[in-house]
Amino acid sequence: MNKVYTKIESIVGDVITVRAQGVRYNDLAVVGKSFANVIKLDGDLVSLQVFAGAKGISTNDEVRFLGVPMKVSFSDDLLGRVFDGSGSPRDNGPALEDNMIEIGGPSVNPAKRIVPKNMIRTGIPMIDVFNTLVESQKLPIFSVSGEPYNELLARIAMQAEVDLIILGGMGLKYDDYLFFKDTLEKSGAMSRTIMFIHTASDPTVECMMIPDMALAVAERFAIEGKKVLVLLTDMTNFADSLKEMAITMDQVPSNRGYPGDLYSSLASRYEKAVDFEGAGSLTILAVTTMPGDDVTHPVPDNTGYITEGQYYLKNGHIEPFGSLSRLKQNVNSETRNDHRALMDGLIKLYSAYKESLEKKSMGFMMSEWDEKLLKYGHLFETRLMDLSVNIPLEEALDLGWEILAECFEPNETGLRSELIAQRWPKKTEA
To answer: Which listed CATH number (2.30.40.10, 2.40.30.20, 3.40.50.2000, 3.40.50.720) goes with 3-69?
Structure first.
């Protein structure tokens, strides 16, 4: 039953306070012409976030509680569509109000989860070969501002072998929003994509709704048997919105001004990742920008305790050192018999290349082995590390062998003799 109140106690930023009875946390309300949701209960004092902002609202405006939490439409009609943080169309298409589902519910019972065992192919060697993305995995992309993380997400959205892509954008510049939209439309990937977009000019409260909407829809599609990949950018903007709202509500700040429940707020979203027995899966790949390249910043620091590894994006590359997919061992043995050994061998030699590069920069005399490593490092960075490289896993593995053969003798690679006998490229006659 709707409950209507006509006296607003206070208006602070986008948060209004009203005295009300029988209201629940996260309940939806209508204030003027805008939706709002309950974010705090203190006796009969109820605090609400106004989606469209509190500008133009007076203390005499009507507040009507709907008695239900925030919901979003769920159906195949969502495919190819773009929505904002309140669930309204951003693409000038029709509003969808059928089959409404609640957002922000609990994560799946751990007893119903199964061990992740299926690879998600992306066509990006630094992911597929070295840090394989696995169904139901939750992985952040740690990056500094200025790195091409949105371009990387767009590549993954176009190329990932999944049934459905759900993109959640938080605090995006309008140019970035148009980039995603245009790129996916031109590639033909928009037909399997749903976008929930909050731009920097939109109300802060809508930024906080984006992950919940994206994940609620993703979970339903996964239950219906779809393999869903959720791409979120950027979770630091999401955390900053939490901080802004906490300050507005006079909450006692924790580390660097962030609310004390930052960890649980992040974890409740990331833990939505799941692989259902006999159904589909939900995988999360989320950009987390690091202010000042500081991995100890509260957002990446808390994220690292929740997720199953991370990708580090530096200098336009996914770094081989520091990047980690903790679940890759679940699938590497199922891809190709040389995958794990070749991956380890390539990285060991790349590490040796870094040492030779440092020696060269310091003016040391280069040995024949150093020269081989320098040649190898250049080929590795241009043919495998470059994010523009787009090849299947098997082709990337063959390319790894070719790079080794161009630079080293078989006995210099440290790889097992039986693998070398099987995979070492045969020299063609001139």
So the answer is: 2.40.30.20
